[in-house]
Each structure stands twice: as C-alpha cells, then as structure tokens.
Design goal:
single chain, Nucleoside Triphosphate Pyrophosphohydrolase, five-stranded mixed β-sheet, three-stranded antiparallel β-sheet, 3 helices, 8 strands, globular
Length: about 160
C-alpha cells in the first residue's frame, strides 16, 4: 500500500508552559538521540479533544495540575518518513493530523514523573520556545515552526 492511501491519525499536542513561559519537552525513549518533543498522542474513538489532551499529558508526564489557556486555531499535519512507514501505529497511518493546546502548568516540577505505565520519555526539561524547531525530529519540524508564532503571540 502506498503511503498516500493510508489515513492520517487524529492526534493532540500539548504546549505546556511553566511560570517562566518555558515549554516542557521530553526526550523520547524510542529515539534517545538528542531530539526532544512536546507531549502529544492519538485520540481514542469517541474521545473529545480536550479529554485526549489531558489523558496524553498525564500518560506521558503524570501531570494533572494544569489550566487550559488556548486551543490553537487550525490543524497541523506531518507525514512519517519512509523508514517509519509501516513500523509505527501498526502500519495503519502515514502521519498525524493534530489539534494543539496551550496549557499552563500549575504544579511544581516534583509532580513530573516519566515513570508511567507506558513510559515514552526518558528525560525532560524546560526549554525557551524559540529553541523548539531546533530540537524536534526533522519530520515534525514544520509543525513546530508553524506553532511557534502562535505560541509566541499568546505568551507575549
């Protein structure tokens, strides 16, 4: 099956900001080279986007203490590179179509625990938003570049 025949997976992403307006990024367990990403994941059948966002954030970071600040307008899409097609998501999708949310972390860093039921990150840090496009894997860079002005407008 060619990649164009495969659908895009519906997903959500979380721009998690701390009190200094730095963004949370995690280093993925399955890609431990120096690449980082914001929490994101798929939407379950029948699940609304806000519930999916909260679930994904909790599954990946243990964080629950948040305030939703903004749902970013529009949808953001990326395509998997050929070497990952057919290998992730059981080969059912060619990429993701994502809805992103800006949320404020109301807790303290002690609430963050990556040792969850299905750990996805091996390390985490707070990052200045301007550095986001420089730390993401290449195939998601365009999404991060599109998100940057929307995040920037929101926190300035």
């Amino acid at each position: 099956m060619t990649s164009k025949k495969l659908p895009l997976r519906l997903g959500v992403g979380v721009v998690l900001l701390n009190k200094k307006n730095q963004v949370f990024v995690g280093k993925r367990k399955d890609n431990p080279i120096d690449k980082w990403q914001m929490p994101q994941g798929g939407v379950n059948t029948g699940e609304n986007l806000i519930d999916a966002m909260k679930r994904e954030l909790h599954e990946e970071t243990s964080i629950q203490n948040i305030k939703i600040l903004n749902e970013i307008d529009g949808w953001f899409e990326y395509e998997l590179p050929k070497n990952l097609l057919g290998r992730i998501w059981r080969g059912r999708y060619r990429g993701q179509k994502q809805k992103w949310f800006v949320v404020k972390f109301l807790g303290n860093d002690g609430e963050i625990n990556l040792q969850t039921d299905k750990p996805e990150f091996i390390e985490w840090r707070w990052l200045d938003i301007e550095n986001l496009p420089n730390v993401i894997v290449d195939f998601k860079r365009k999404v991060y570049e599109q998100l940057l002005p929307k995040i920037r407008n929101f926190i300035n």
